[in-house]
Amino acid sequence: MNLENMKIISIDDNKTNLLIIESYAKILNLEIESFLNPKEALEASFQKDYDLVIVDYMMPEINGLEFIQVFREKNQNTPIIMLTAVGDDMNLQIKALEYGANDFLSKPINAPAFKARIINMLKLRKSQLLLQDKALLLQNEVEAATFRLKESEYETLQMLGKSAEYKDPETNAHTQRVAHYCKLLARAYGLDESLQDIIFYASPFHDLGKIGIPDNILLKPGKLDDDEFSIMKNHAKIGYEILKGSKSKYLKAGGVIAYNHHEKYDGTGYPNGLKGENIPIFGRITAVADVFDALTSSRPYKNAWSLEDAFDFLIREKSLHFDPNLVDLFIENRNEVINIHNKFKEA
In which region does residue 62 sit, left (phi positive, over 0), alpha (psi from -120 to 50) or beta (all else)? Predict the structure, then answer.
C-alpha cells in the first residue's frame, strides 16, 4: 500500500521533538506540518485535511487530552497518536483512548517503533479513504441508475399521455401547455417540488377517458345535445377506471385528475358534484389550466379566444367554476402563463 505524500500534523511544545519526528517522516516520504502552539494546530486542522495527528501530552495552555477532545468534535476518523513520557500511568492512556486516541508513542522516540506505528496508522487511514471512495462511487452509481430509470419513466408517461390524441382533435401542444400551467400553479400554490413534478407528468392524462367515447360524439363539429353531452361526461370516469389501479404515483395522480378536473368549485360540476376544497387540489389546478388552454386554442368548432378574454373569464368564474385562490395565482403569474402559451404553439 503506497503511503507516500500522506499528510501528518505534529504538535509538541519541544522543538527538538518536532525536528526528530520531521526527519523520520521525511524518510518515509510523508508530508508533515509541525506546530509548537496547540491552538494554532487546532485551527490548521479545521482548515485542512490530515491523514494522521501526532500530539504530545504535556503542553502549556492545552494538553494532549484536551487537544484530542476538541479535535474529535469535528473529526471522528483521522488516526491520532499521542506522545507520552516513559512512566506515564496507564490511567492516562485509558483516558486518551476514551477521548479518541488510537495509539501511543513513548518519549524518547524509538525509530523502529515510530516507523511501525506511523505505517500502521496511515494504513488504517488509507483503508478508511478507500472505503469512503467506494461508498461514494456506489452512491453515484445508484443516483445515475435512478436518474436513468426516472428518465425512462418520464419518456413512457409522455408517450402514454399522447394516446388519447389520436381520437381527439386537441393536439400534443395542448397537453404540453396544460402540464406547464399545472406545474406553475402547483409551485405558486406552495406544493413541494415532488408534487409539482407529479402533476406535471400526470396532468396530460386528464382526458385519457375520451378514448372510450364514440367518434360521432367526440369528433362532432357542433355543440353536443343533452344526450350526447351525458355520454361525453363519462370520459372522466373512464379515465379514472383505466388509471386507478396503477402502482405508479404519476398514473395514480393521472386517475385523480381525470376524475376531478370537471368538478366545479360551487358543486355544479361532474361526475360527483364535489364542492370547494372537497375537490382534490390536482383536480382544481388542472381545471384552471385545461379551461384556459381550451379557450385560447382553435378547434374545428370554434375560434381561439384572446388571452385577455380568457383571463377575464377565469376572473368571472372565481368561486363558481374555479378555486378563487388558484385564479388569483394564475393571474399574478400571467407573464409566465403568456410565455408558456407562446412557447408551445399549435403545430
Answer: beta
Is the pLDDT at 107 greater than 90? The verdict is no
What is the C-alpha to C-alpha distance for residues 125 and 137, in angstroms, rounded to an integer? Answer: 18
Q: Is 90 exceeded by the pLDDT of residue 139?
A: no
Q: Which of the pair, 333 or 104, is modelled with greater confidence?
A: 333
Cell of 302: 370554434
Helix spans in the chain (H): 15-27, 38-47, 64-74, 90-99, 111-161, 172-189, 193-202, 215-218, 226-232, 234-243, 249-260, 281-295, 307-316, 324-332, 334-343
Mean pLDDT in the chain?
87
Cβ neighbours, 10 Å, residue 228: 16
* Positive or negative torsion for Cα 59, 61, 66, 70: negative
Contact between 184 and 336 (Cβ < 8 Å): yes
CB of 207 within 8 A of CB of 235? Answer: yes
- For cell 452509481, the residue is 141
* Set of cell numbers at residue 163: 394516446
3-state class (DSSP) for residue 34: strand
Among 60-69, 287-296, 333-342, name the one with the lowest average pLDDT: 60-69
The DSSP letter of residue 24 is H
Cell 513513548 identifies what position? 106
- pLDDT: is 347 or 138 the higher one? 138
d(C-alpha 293, C-alpha 59), whole Å: 76
Cell numbers linked to 184: 406553475
How is residue 97 written as a grid cell? 483512548
How far apart (Å, rounded) are the C-alpha atoms in residues 311 and 308?
Answer: 5
Across-strand partners of 84? 106
* Rounded Cα gap, residues 27 and 225, in angstroms: 96
92 close to 63: Cβ distance less than 8 angstroms: no
Q: Report phi then psi at 9, rounded to 5.
A: -115, 130
